[in-house]
Amino acid sequence: MNYSPVARCGAYFWFVCLLLMPFYANAELDPLADDALSDVSGKGGIYLSGDVSVNEVGGPVQNSYFGRCDEQDKKCGARFAYRLKEDGGWLVLDELRGKFSFEGLTLRVRSIDSGFGGDGEQFNRDVIEVGLPDTVRFKDVQFKLAASSTARPIDPGFHQTDIFGIEMQGDVIMQGNLLVFPDGNP
């Protein structure tokens, strides 16, 4: 079953909310007077920082294709496959592994009702805004970009052509926002 990126983002958002709920369940709310409230400003959303390690020694799936990183005849790391057309081939990130660190990734809902050369007024809906962190640190990150005949290497008729391999080390400066538009018609 395929879910849209917006549906996946929504699921992650609710999962994070459920994780944080026990911390706020015991919070006490005090009313603010109008004069005190006029001095308060804020924004809704989520601010995230973290370290994400992906398959540093090999993935959890071990079969004829995937294995531990010390097995020379096996592939090591995660695999992400995206089908470009309904009856077309697959774009693949294969053998993904390493560590990503970031601080300041933000998530919030933003209303688009103007801008975009007048298209915003026609759209007039909410989108998910992902605020990119200032710096992302990469440690021993590796992956291959490939074209594949199937999503999984164990599927019948599997054939993959590796386009190029990437190794990343160090810091990348990121600025701006990524807007995730919902599927469907407004």
Can you describe what's shown?
By secondary structure, the chain is an alpha+beta fold. It has one domain (45-180). Helix content is 16%, strand content 41%. It has helices at residues 5-25, 34-37, 119-123, and strands spanning 46-54, 78-83, 90-112, 125-131, 135-148, 160-173, 177-180. It is extended.
Mean pLDDT value: 77
pLDDT < 50 runs, ≥5 residues: 1-12
Strand content is 35-45%
> How many distinct helices?
3
**N-to-C SSE series?**
HHEEEHEEEE
User: N-to-C terminal Cα separation, in Å?
Assistant: 24 Å
Helix % is 10-25%
Shape: extended
Number of domains: 1
Entry keywords:
alpha+beta, 7-stranded antiparallel sheet, 7 strands, 41% strand, 16% helix, 3 helices, 186 residues
A few lines on this structure:
This protein has three helices and seven strands, in the order ααβββαββββ. It is α+β, with helices and mostly antiparallel strands. It has one domain (45-180).
Note the topology.
Elements: H1 5-25, H2 34-37, E1 46-54, E2 78-83, E3 90-112, H3 119-123, E4 125-131, E5 135-148, E6 160-173, E7 177-180
Antiparallel strand pairs: 1-3, 2-3, 3-4, 3-5, 4-7, 5-6
